[in-house]
Structure formats: C-alpha cells, structure tokens
Here is the input.
Amino acid sequence: MIFFQLFYTFFLIGLFGFGGGYAMISMIQGEVVTNHHWMTMGEFTDIVAVSQMTPGPIGINSATYVGYTAVVNVGGEHWMGILGSVTATFAVVLPSFILMLLISKFLMKYKHHPVVEHVFLGLRPAVVGLLAAACLLLMTPENFSTPSESPWQFWISVGIFLFTLIGCQVYKLKPIPTLLFCAFVGILLF
Amino acid sequence: MNKFRSDPQSKVTTPPIKGGRGGGLFTTFFHIGLFTIGGGYAMIPLIEEKIVDEKQWISREELLDLMAVAQSCPGVFAVNIAIFIGYKLRGIRGALASTIGCCLPSFLIILAIALFFRQFQDNPWVARAFRGIRPCVVALIAAPTFKMAKTAKIGLTNIWIPILSAFLIWMFGVSPIWVIAIAGLGGYLYGKFVDQGLTPNPSPKGEGSIHPQENTNDNSPQQ
Here is the structure.
C-alpha cells in the first residue's frame, strides 16, 4: 500500500540524508520522481521553490507535500492525502529522533571526558566557519539578483542585507520583527 | 550531574519550561519553526535569540556543539537541533514537544498550500515579499557569527580555522561533514599532544549546566 511505501521511502531519506538541504533534495528527487513516480519533475521543482518560501526545511516540506500528493494522485480522498502527509513527515523525522536521542544520552554521559571536550574544542571554530559558509552560499543571484540583471533589486537587496546585519549587531534588532519588516519592504519596493 | 535531564521531580536547577515568560518548549519551538525560512541554518539566529539569550535554556557553547552534532548526523539539521534541545531539557517528552512544535507550522502551511493554494509561489505579492525576505535571512545567518566566534574563542591564532572551513565548504564544495570530522580529529590530536594536562574548559561544571547563567561568553566558574 502506498502508505507503507511512503513511510519506507521517507524513513530511508531521513536515515541517509546527509549533508542537509541540497544533498537531500537530490535524494528525494531520485526516490519520489524517478523511482516511484509520485510526482513529475515539474511538480517537484515547484515544491523546492515553495519550500524556499515557506517555513521549514526542504526535508520536512517535501515529505509533507509528497505525502499528500502521492496519495491523492493514486485516487485517495483529501483526508487520506493528509494521512499520507503525516506518514511521510513522521517517517522522515523518526531516524533523527532515534539517533539524536542515542547521541544525547552518550554525550550527556561523557560530556566532561577530556577527549570529548578536546574534540568539541576543535569543532567550535569550525562550526563558526560552517555558519559563515552557509551565509556565503546563500549569496546567490537567486537571492540578491545581480547588478546587470536587475540593479534595482540588487541594490535594495544589498541594502536589506546591510540593514539587517547592522541592525541586529549594533542595534540589537530581533530576528522575527526584522524578517516581517523586510517582507513588507519587499512588497513595497519590488 | 546529569540529574537535570528528565526528572520532573528533580530539585536540581531546572529552569521553568512550561508557561513563564513566553511559553514552554512547544510554543517556543512553534515560533521558531514558523520563522525558519530559507533553510535549516536560518533557525540558528532564532535559537540564539530565544533559547540562548532570552530563556537561557542552553549556552552559546552548547549551541555550537549542537550544530556540529546536528550537521554530522543524517536527517534534517533543524529537526536534529530541536530534538537535542528538547531532550536535554525534558527528556523524551521534551524532544517530542520541541520536534512537533518545530515541524508543525511548516506542516500546516504546506498542507494548506497543497490543498488550497497550489499557485502560492506564483502569487506576485508573495514573490515580492520573498525578495525582501531572502537577503534578510542571509544577514540573519551572518549576524550570529560574531558572537559565536567569541564563544568559540576565536582569536588571531586560530582564526584560520573558521576561515579555512568556510572556504572549503563555499569555494570547493567540501561537505561540511568532512570539515567537522577533520576539526574534531584536530581537536582530539591537539588535546593529546599539545594541551597535556591543561583542562580546556576551566569550569567543567559551568559547561553543560542549564542553571541560568549571566549572559557572559567566558567560561568563568559557575556562581
């Protein structure tokens, strides 16, 4: 039955989806579009775009969306579609749940072991680098446009970026109101 | 030492989780999940603000450690972080509360889109709002780097570590997991051969405790 397939597929995605976002996308695409034909490539591209515009990571969003669409596409009712969503989303989170609980237990027990402490001491600066990389990777024409393509959008985007950066660092602006404000600015100016 | 974990009857320092100044685990993570837009890392500034600074449920050091673990594990980064924090604060029930809280907003919104708003992404208003949101998110992710750098004790001697890490990932497409693995190994080797006998953290008791602490980034002994 499709629910078992959904569960199984997304459980595997949750279990083997290393490297976050984009790595996961190709895995999901392989399973959902190529393997199971639950969606067309076009529909899948849509959900990736939607996921950029909605809260939630692509892993969760695609599970929710695919879960619903797959069931409905084989003739299920709306409520069955919702059940499909729940199944897929639950399945993708479950491996994380188990794994993280095990690791938490382990870490809590061995947190003050000198080896563990030293490892994390080495990790912390690297994680700062990770954060910086995440930020750099997001500086794309998709997010900012380019001076040649659309100077208006580009410079406003740069302005928004600087406003947020300086606002949060210097003026202690809070993230959520800033996000909402920038959305509003986007509606006004773009 | 780890008695704080999930014992509701515990008299050891457990911060108020339910209710209080703005909600318990579920509510907090619901808010966080609602505004994590543009990828898992967008969660970090929100966690920093609400959980580290405001509620002081974890320290900034712990958040850094958490990020390393969450990135190295399979599955969704944001969910891993939520599970960890929830479990640390209230055991399995906490993990459930935080995870469900974090996933629920996106779940509901995506379902709504699938059911009613198929053309959501084509809506011009939405498109414009997001042209404003995206650069904002990039800056929001950048903002914590400075405080985190301080927490990670980054100075002139070791600033090459984050720079190299960022470069490898950004320029050369190296998977973050490799970077983490090598950095962890480096830390281990450093401890083994260089830092003999010196405890890296002067206050092992301060680290890891969720006793509400003054919001300082130095490892001064717990008061």
